Amino acid sequence: MWSNTLLALAPFVASSLAWTPPSYSGFNLRWTDAFGGSGGASPDQGNWNIITGDLNVNNELETCPLPKFVYFNSSSTRNLQLSGGNTLQIVPWKGGGTHGWTSGRIESKYTFTPAAGVVTRVEASIRFGSNPISAKQGLWPAFWMLGNSIRNGVQWPGCGELDIMETVNGLLTGYGTVHCDRAPGGICQETQGLGKSIGIPNQEFHVWRLEWDLTSSNWQSQSIKWFLDGQAYHTLTGGNIGNQAVWNTLAHAPMFFILNMAVGGGWPGNPNGVTQDGYGAMMEVGYVAHYQRNNMAAMKFANGNSSSAETDYPNTNTPVAPEMMALLDKEAPSISANTITRMARRFFS
């Protein structure tokens, strides 16, 4: 009897724990939303601004629900709701709105500036609804970031934009793109931007990640890197941008998260007669998280060695600086270098 009870409970336990943001060796979790809460409720409005009305961008068709409908859990919460299983569902629906579709978009109240001298990581676990790809013409899910300066009057693309994941028309191709400088043209070749793509294995949950590596004091050697499930597929350096002021808008200025499901627009084109709406067309998000590599993982020793290698783990083979060894040889010659290294790590961790 007990074994049967435990088996019955197992799926519930797994689902309730599935979207806890993962821990990574060498990184500290700085902020997250794992979308816990009752099914049908709005996402935490202490964390997110719910964007409403006609956005009038990219020639998109969707209208986001008005706040009073979201607050009162009316039928319009179908566009933007907690699943009750620790996920957020952004669901496009035909009918209503100005152009015949409604959908959802949220922007984080949380902002952060990538920290100098370390690696900063942001990521989200995302899946797409199970409707066939042939029924997704005109759908455009995205996980991206904008420079917070846009909230203070700086125009796009001068504010800086980092698209961590976009895909259009249900096609199993993900795009990572940066927008910057000015439009049209400019450093980021607007309005196209500078980007690359990667194949997506399927419509199930996958982790989309962006990392800033600012361990170098030389801005031209600093980088922004895009990943799918831990596989890097796009890297942009300060040297690629070639202008420090523009690089600063992407790597040294406050940014915020955006999650949205656009409908129509200049890139995907409009829905057609076979485009399906509803949960099979949604973007579902398990968590959004911001991490920062801890001091030990980014520590630079006096001999110039550092742990900036492409790994989640701090360097475990860093030799003791010669001047430190000379002092310790004089004061305590019987202590081995390996012991000193272990002591230094323990002291600085």
What does this structure look like?
With 349 residues, the chain is an alpha+beta fold. The chain has two domains: 20-294, Jelly Rolls (Sandwich), CATH 2.60.120; 297-348, no CATH class. The chain is 17% helix and 32% strand. The protein has seven helices and 19 strands. Strand 7 and strand 8 form a beta hairpin. The longest helix has 16 residues, at 2-17. The protein starts with a helix and ends with a helix. 37% of the residues are buried. It comes from Apiospora hydei. Residues 1-18 form the signal peptide. Keywords: Signal. It holds the Pfam family GH16_XgeA.
Which properties best describe this structure?
single chain, 349 residues, alpha+beta, Jelly Rolls, 2 domains, 8-stranded antiparallel beta sheet, 7-stranded antiparallel beta sheet, 17% helix, 32% strand, globular, disordered N terminus, disordered C terminus, Secreted glucosidase, Beta-glucanase-like
Would you summarize the structure shown here?
With 349 residues, this protein is α+β, with helices and mostly antiparallel strands. It has helices at residues 2-17, 67-71, 238-241, 244-251, 295-298, 322-331, 337-348, and strands spanning 27-33, 48-50, 53-54, 62-64, 80-82, 88-90, 93-94, 101-102, 105-112, 119-128, 139-147, 161-166, 173-179, 194-199, 206-213, 223-228, 231-237, 255-263, 283-293.
